[in-house]
Amino acid sequence: MSDRTSAPSTQPLLQPVQLGALKLPNRVVMAPMTRSRADNEELAPTALHATYYAQRAGAGLIISEGTWVSTDAIGFINVPGIYTDAQTAGWTKVTEAVHSAGGRIISQIGHVGAVSHPDHLGGRLPAGPSAINPQEMSFTPDGPKDTVTPRALTAADIATTIDTYRQAAANALRAGFDGLEIHAQASHLVAQFLNPRLNQRTDAYGGSSEKRAQFLFDVVDAVSSVWGSDRIGVKLSPYWRREPAFTADAEMLTDYDLLLKRLSDTDLAYLHLVGPEPDTGTDDTFTAFTRYRAHYRGAVIANLGFTQASGNELLERQLAEAVSFGAPFIANPDLVDRFTHGHPLAAGNRDTYYAGDAAGYTDYPAVTGSY
Questions:
Q1: Confidence band for 5, pLDDT divided at 50, 70 and 90
Q2: How far apart, in whole angstroms, are the C-alpha atoms of residue 166 and residue 284?
């Protein structure tokens, strides 16, 4: 094990920071990553999950894999939920293990909406903002399948769905998490509401940029009734591209500019913002985060493809308060130590990212020996 009592490095990534009520000893955040290890009927975390997260407790903050707020939210195999007592009990063991190892962990909660599939839902149609097929792929127990045309959520359905977020937030609090992150990125339900191609409602939840964002704000209000807003984050991906529904065009990016301005008034702990894919030909990463900074005055966790060097540079430019790392944490449970002492990073086995048991999950070693 490394000596965490050594003098702090001058690297920005290794400096402490406070995000709302969350006090972090460093700015290296473990990003939420689906790993599909909840291979049980209850979709509950197991002792393996507790080991996995505790191994990575050196992170300034761990954000859990995205967890389902209800059975209707399910859209991927072997992903845990946080809507039952059994699931909550499993997460309690995870948070206890992380805290015992000196770490901090928050729960990411979410719902896939229209990108689910009847195979996940006992044959029922998934539901989305409008009855429009997102033309995505759903990973079902029988393999990848094309999405179908969903049913449109009724006003009563929306109220019920928002309440499932509130209950999931209560379960996360009961499980001992240090905070909560709302999954609002990629092609999932909140992003579907924000998207004019998939949200063609004419009620309070559609018809304008402000109304398309109302679902997100109602979810924020619901979970804030359980947690203080200073322990809540929201993860957004304005540059997400998945044709034909998700295109980061000028109109969509302008909508997100307006959303970030409105979120500045919510006193959240942070926004977790995803930059553009490196090979999309869009604005480069620093330009994107400069744009975010112009519209959101709160704390930002930056995500997508950062290295130690680029993460430090982003922080030096004061374009974010922390940086989240996904894949590097898979094969490097001691990522912060490696950044601290200049050790090379191990490579992960992609074949075990979304399947398997301990292999490729908890069997990656930390660097051994004295520093």
A1: very low
A2: 36
Do residues 130 and 84 touch, judged by C-beta distance below 8 A?
no
In eight-state DSSP terms, residue 93 is H
- Token pair of 103 as six digits: 């770490």
E-assigned strand segments in the chain? 17-19, 22-24, 28-30, 61-68, 105-110, 127-128, 137-140, 143-146, 151-152, 180-183, 232-236, 270-274, 300-303, 322-325
Domain ranges of the chain: 13-352
**Structural contact between residues 54 and 47, judged by C-beta atoms closer than 8 angstroms:** no
DSSP calls for 39-70: -STT----HHHHHHHHHTTTSSEEEEEEEESS
pLDDT in tens, 308-362: 999 999 999 999 999 999 999 999 999 999 999 999 999 999 999 998 899 999 9
**SS3 state of residue 222:** helix
178: Cα within 13 Å, side-chain hemisphere: 22
| Token pair 């553009």: residue | 276
In whole angstroms, give the CA distance from residue 193 to residue 210: 11
The pTM of the full predicted model, rounded to 2 decimals, is 0.95
**Contacts of 15 by beta carbon, 8 Å cutoff, 6+ apart:** 8, 26, 27
* Topology classification of domain 13-352: TIM Barrel (3.20.20)
Neighbours of 301 (CB within 10 A): 26
pLDDT tens figures, 162-221: 999 999 999 999 999 999 999 999 999 999 999 999 999 999 999 999 999 999 999 999
Distance set, CA 69 to CA 37, 108, 255, 269, 287 (Å):
18, 10, 26, 21, 34
